[in-house]
């Protein structure tokens, strides 16, 4: 907020020798990303994020997070279609989530000792809860106590890398890996990404081998994202396209992006929920009363109940506002000269929307530091905006 008060709604931050335009105003972000979204959709190809995603055979960047142009368009369309087919946004995925919730709460019950107390690492529970849901969509199986070490070997280094990453890393060239004093920092960020990539490659190879052995079939409806992709590869091969973006390398990176992006953001949101709710037991009691009045303690709450749980909805929204996950969105690059509010920005300019400034804007949210779900109950239009 100090930055916006001093420099305005749109300001430039110089990172090394690169100018990066930050947007900290709701109306300007709406203009740039929604109204002018077609000309501002190009991803900035950050070297630190693109090293593992660049195919050495054709030089293109793959994965829905960092790809651009035809690759991004085809894989985004395919991914959204398959996720919907697998139940995301519908009752099917809700059932998977509730099943996982039942499993995790049962595991917690097993660990309760005297006076029904237990010492638990909530981030471990939330990581596994989210990881199992995502992994079941990607590969059709979940992690349990027997193979938790496999999950931890991928997730822990990734957490460590993300915790130490700053905006500066996005603009550092790849050649710093050859500079002794900076090599370790480079490896600290790159190696965890490569570990997730290795995990994806391993899962794909096992599935392909099972298909060859006849112990797995991709005929009919796909069991998971991997099946759907392998089906798409067969379909694309019959069309004999001059440039096939559905390569194995593209598959690995699509998996990496779904796994990491979905895992990190959702786990962080749950962790923020835990922190904020434990500090505000009165909010927990109000949510509990609203849910029990609806379910009488005999069933899970479902998405179909959403219209009947205004306080619960407001609490979830306030958690996301106060936690402001991903305060700096993925950097993008302008493709033509355009307007950012009152400023004209040249083509090729790197910019990033700063959501944290909007979510903590006193002009929009009164007393923004305060955790207050009631603000969305009293003013429903605030949530819609």
TrEMBL record:
Signal peptide: none annotated. Belongs to the cytochrome P450 family. GO terms for cellular component: cytoplasm. It holds the Pfam family p450. This is Cytochrome P450. Coiled coil: none annotated. Keywords: Iron, Metal-binding, Monooxygenase, Oxidoreductase. The keyword Ribonucleoprotein does not apply. The keyword Transit peptide does not apply. GO terms for molecular function: heme binding; iron ion binding; oxidoreductase activity, acting on paired donors, with incorporation or reduction of molecular oxygen, reduced flavin or flavoprotein as one donor, and incorporation of one atom of oxygen. InterPro entries: Cyt_P450, Cyt_P450_E_grp-I, Cyt_P450_sf, Cytochrome_P450_fam2. One of its GO terms (biological process) is xenobiotic metabolic process. Gene3D superfamilies: Cytochrome P450.
């Amino acid at each position: 907020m100090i930055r916006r008060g001093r420099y305005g709604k749109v300001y430039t931050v110089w990172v090394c020798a690169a100018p990066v335009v930050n947007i900290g105003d709701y109306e300007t972000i709406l203009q740039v990303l929604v109204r002018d979204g077609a000309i501002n959709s190009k991803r900035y190809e950050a070297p630190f994020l693109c090293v593992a995603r660049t195919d050495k055979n054709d030089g293109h960047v793959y994965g829905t997070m960092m790809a651009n142009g035809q690759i991004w368009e085809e894989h985004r369309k395919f991914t959204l279609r398959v996720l919907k087919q697998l139940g995301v946004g519908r009752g099917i995925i809700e059932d998977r989530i509730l099943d996982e919730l039942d499993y995790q709460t049962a595991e917690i019950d097993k660990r309760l000792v005297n006076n029904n107390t237990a010492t638990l690492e909530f981030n471990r529970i939330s990581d596994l809860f989210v990881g199992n849901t995502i992994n079941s969509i990607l590969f059709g199986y979940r992690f349990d106590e027997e193979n938790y070490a496999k999950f931890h070997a991928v997730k822990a280094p990734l957490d460590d890398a993300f915790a130490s990453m700053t905006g500066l890393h996005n603009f550092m060239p790849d050649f710093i890996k050859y500079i002794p004093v900076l090599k370790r920092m480079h490896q600290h960020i790159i190696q965890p990404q490569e570990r997730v990539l290795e995990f994806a490659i391993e899962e794909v190879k096992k599935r392909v081998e099972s298909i060859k052995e006849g112990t797995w079939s991709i005929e009919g409806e796909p069991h998971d994202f991997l099946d759907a992709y392998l089906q798409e590869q067969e379909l694309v091969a019959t069309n004999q396209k001059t440039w096939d973006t559905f390569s194995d390398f593209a598959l690995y990176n699509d998996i990496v992006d779904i796994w990491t992006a979905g895992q990190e953001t959702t786990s962080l949101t749950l962790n923020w929920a835990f922190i904020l709710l434990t500090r505000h037991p009165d909010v927990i009691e109000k949510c509990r009363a609203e849910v029990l009045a609806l379910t009488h303690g005999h069933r899970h709450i479902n998405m179909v109940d959403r219209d009947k749980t205004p306080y619960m909805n407001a609490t979830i929204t306030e958690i996301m506002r106060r936690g402001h996950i991903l305060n700096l969105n993925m950097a993008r690059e302008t493709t033509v000269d355009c307007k950012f509010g009152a400023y004209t920005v040249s083509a090729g300019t790197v910019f990033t929307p700063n959501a944290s400034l909007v979510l903590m804007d006193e002009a929009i949210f009164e007393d923004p530091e305060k955790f207050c779900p009631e603000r969305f109950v009293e003013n429903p239009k605030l949530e819609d905006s």
